[in-house]
Amino acid sequence: MRIGQLAARAGASPRQVRFYEAKGLITSTRGPNNYRDYSETTLGRVQQIRELLNAGLSTQAIRGILPCLESPRDPIVFEGVTAETMGALERERDRLTERIDVLARNRDAIADYLTELRGRAN
């Protein structure tokens, strides 16, 4: 897909997509017309990058995290990881854990409510 389509689907701007590519977070191929072409996999990666940036992580930290999100994994980056980066990652992990817990409780409450509704409908 072309850069405009990728950007629109990912909720980003073409400028942000080019920035992510310049930072080595995503890659593209070039067609015969020299336009960038992105795979469907890149869409998910751009969405992950945006979430991690919104969480306050630097592009350097994100470059280290992204291989952990893929299978098979690219080489994981260890150089240049600071205590500050580790703290940011720990905070993000804890925030996600809290979010998951809230979502699981809400899912369970909705499931219980649906069970009650179905029981009363019969």
TrEMBL record:
Domain of life: Bacteria
UniProt-listed SMART domains: HTH_MERR
Keywords of the record: DNA-binding, Repressor, Transcription, Transcription regulation
KW DNA-binding (keyword) present: yes
Every HTH merR-type domain range: 1-68
Entry keyword rRNA-binding: no
Protein name: MerR family transcriptional regulator
Organism: Streptomyces polygonati
Lineage, uppermost ranks: Bacteria, Bacillati, Actinomycetota, Actinomycetes, Kitasatosporales
